[in-house]
Specification:
With about 300 residues, this protein is of the alpha/beta class. It is built from twelve helices and twelve strands. Bound molecules: nicotinamide-adenine-dinucleotide and D-malate. The site of nicotinamide-adenine-dinucleotide has 32 residues, from helix 5 and helix 7. Its EC number is 1.1.1.95.
Length: about 300
């Protein structure tokens, strides 16, 4: 069995793949779709993070491919439909980076509330500014969590530690579940109307792309602050830009973008925008966790067992 490992998956996971009878090729540089189409026939399994897109042409060329492993949560960089049509199993690692992404969300929320990146930049440029960087407290503010799955729940619990009132929208969870995690389950309209901070923790699907658009932004509280550590495109960047320019949105913190990687965006020119380059899962712990989880799944599948996270 030959396994191709891409996107800098943690070495601890790769070690698990080095079973007797398995050959593991680790490629660090970014491969083009054409390069992958040419290489993939030699492989029984491929493991990626989010940088490499496993497209339909790569899947069609993968005549020996049995499993595609995603060392992380979102499988939107894999053409799952094409994989299913070819009888290839797609597995992910849904739990390993939950805490990393939740903590990054809190880091961005605090950075937004207290202008940490802007003050840091100004001071290092020789400007001692205090009045300009007066912030707001999280205490007693209403946090609206859209998507109360693993990360949304972890964010809600941590926000309660800051004495925030947490409301949430997720049509797929029960009121009982919401009560268990101390969240008042409300409609999307209510989240827009009531929340001082809004954070999205949704998968990227046809339903969720463009969810936060001009119309949604218009329904929000003036001065709302918005955080996206889920997926670019769930918030329409152009509409967000306009709402930030008018002051309707007081600030936005974004870890993910419609097109990635990106180093240029009109949003980057706004002083009330805090950005990170898709770092939500980038902790030492999370990268080991997801690599171990996905590697175990791949070994199980290649040895004829049942996948847990297919
Ligand atoms: P999850 O599957 O545990 O939770 C997603 C939740 O969204 C579910 O509870 C689901 O019911 C809900 N949902 C689905 N469609 C909805 C809709 N239309 N409206 C409201 N709720 C809806 O996933 P998770 O592990 O919490 O991950 C959330 C997102 O974060 C994913 O997009 C994932 O890829 C992304 N993520 C990003 C990073 C990063 O590095 N920035 C790290 C980890 C995960
Ligand atoms: C995920 O969906 O798990 C995240 O995008 C994290 C990542 O793999 O970079």
């Amino acid at each position: 069995m030959r396994i191709l490992v891409l996107d800098g998956v943690s070495e601890k996971g790769i070690d698990i793949l080095r079973e007797p009878g398995f050959t593991v090729d680790v490629i660090e540089e970014k491969l083009s779709e054409q390069q992958l189409v040419e290489m993939i026939p030699a492989y029984d399994a491929v493991v990626v993070r989010s940088a490499t897109k496993i497209t339909a042409p790569i899947i069609a060329a993968g005549v020996n491919l049995k499993v595609i492993g995603r060392a992380g949560v979102g499988v939107d960089n894999i053409d799952v439909q094409a994989a299913t049509q070819h009888g290839i199993i797609v597995v992910n690692a849904p739990d390993g980076n939950t805490i990393a992404a939740a903590e990054h969300t809190l880091a961005l929320m605090l950075a937004l509330a207290r202008h940490v990146p802007q003050a840091n930049e100004a001071l290092k440029k020789g400007k001692w500014l205090r009045k300009e960087f007066t912030g707001v407290e999280l205490r007693d503010k209403i946090l609206g969590v859209i998507g109360l799955g693993r990360i949304g729940t972890a964010v809600a619990k941590r926000a309660q530690g800051f004495a925030m009132k947490v409301i949430g929208y997720d049509p797929y969870i029960t009121h009982e579940r919401a009560r268990e995690i101390g969240v008042e389950l409300v409609s999307l309209e209510d989240v827009y109307r009531e929340a001082d901070f809004i954070t999205v923790h949704l998968p990227k699907t046809k339903e969720t792309v463009n969810l936060i658009n001009r119309e949604a932004l218009a329904k929000m509280k003036p001065g709302v602050r918005i955080i996206n550590v889920a997926r670019g495109g769930i918030i329409n960047e152009q509409d967000l830009y306009e709402a930030l320019k008018t002051g309707k949105v007081a600030g936005a913190a974004l870890d993910v973008f419609e097109v990635e990687p990106t180093t240029e965006s009109p949003l980057f020119e706004l002083p009330n925008v805090v950005v990170t380059p898709h770092l939500g899962a980038s902790t030492e712990e999370a990268q080991v966790n997801v690599a171990l989880d996905v590697a175990r799944e791949i070994v199980t599948i290649l040895q004829g067992g049942m996948a847990q996270n297919a």
